[in-house]
Amino acid sequence: MQRLFVADLHLDHERPEIIRAFAVFLHEKAAGADELYLLGDIFEAWIGDDAAPDYLQPLYDQLAALSAAGVSLFFQHGNRDFLLGQAFAERIGARLLPELHHLTTIHGKTLLLHGDQLCLDDVDYQAFRRQVRDPGWQCDFLDKPVEERLAIARQLRAASQEQGAQKAAYITDVTPAAVSELMVNESATLMIHGHTHRPCLHTDQSPDGGVRIVLGDWDTHGWYLEMDEDGCRQYAFKLPTEGPLAPVLQDSLAAPR
User: Fold this and answer.
1) Binding site, residues?
2) The model scores a pTM over 0.85
3) Which of 34, 97, 109, 153 has the least C-beta neighbours within 10 A?
4) Contact partners, residue 81, CB within 8 Å, separation at least 6
5) How confident is the model at residue 38 (pLDDT cuts 50, 70, 90)?
């Protein structure tokens, strides 16, 4: 069983090199996997399934072809694409995951999440998150014309970038106590998430020695986590790329013996 995990691609027309690199990744790497997990912020902004960006149609087709060929696709919402719905998931052949998903792996009970729900020191963001995750707010937003939704999304994006630049690093990172508490409550030995754009493997994340793997964001490099019977390995590869991937191992977690 080979599982692949990615997050924080932030696919956008302004970054064609990332779109191209993801297409190469799907062709060269994901096509040989059993499962592919998309753990949020795959898209820079998602304003509704009825407004899926047309310029990404080749990627939609690739994902649908992977699913049809037997690769199981899973999508978990991020803070940029929380409005992605069942209609689009069916379009690409993916299964939508809850914001906290339990997975049994060779490392024991594993938790998958985007990660933004653990940034509890960012009080303003958590208030915003509660607002936009409210079903009533989402219904009201999706009822608006596409152009109005696009304008609101641009405003929210600009405000987020401005506010993020003014916050201390610890505020925009996960809260350690929240990580430990969640791992204890869920009896988890491994946690995998993205969001913070700080790829790393962290040990001793809970009283029982839990491990937390933070997925890398796609910017100057693409990132993916690979899990099989030998353990977990996170790789990075330089962008842009049109040819074969040249992944470089960043960190690894060996399977228990």
Assistant:
1) 8, 10, 41, 79-80, 114, 122, 160, 167, 195, 197
2) yes
3) 34
4) 40, 41, 42, 43, 45, 46
5) very high
Mean pLDDT rounded to a whole number for the chain: 94
**What's the pLDDT tens digit per position in 193-247?**
999 999 999 999 999 999 999 999 999 999 999 999 999 999 999 997 777 899 9
**pLDDT above 90 (res 164):** no
**Phi-psi category of residue 195: left, alpha or beta, with phi > 0 → left and psi -120 to 50 → alpha:** left
- Could you tell me which residue, 166 or 120, shows the higher pLDDT? 120
Reply yes or no on whether the pLDDT at 167 is more than 80.
Answer: no
Which residue bears the tokens 């201390």?
A: 168
What residues form the annotated binding site for substrate? 79-80, 122, 160, 167, 195
What are the angstrom distances between the C-alpha of 165 and each of 24, 153, 159, 161, 180? 32, 18, 10, 6, 27
* Phi/psi at 250 (5° precision): -105, -45
Binding-site residues for Mn(2+), in ranges, read 8, 10, 41, 79, 114, 195, 197
Burial 221-240 (b: 16+ CB within 10 A, else e): bbbbbbbbeebbbbbbbebe
CA 114 from chain center: how many Å?
Answer: 5
Beta-carbon-side half-sphere exposure of residue 30 (alpha carbons within 13 Å) = 30
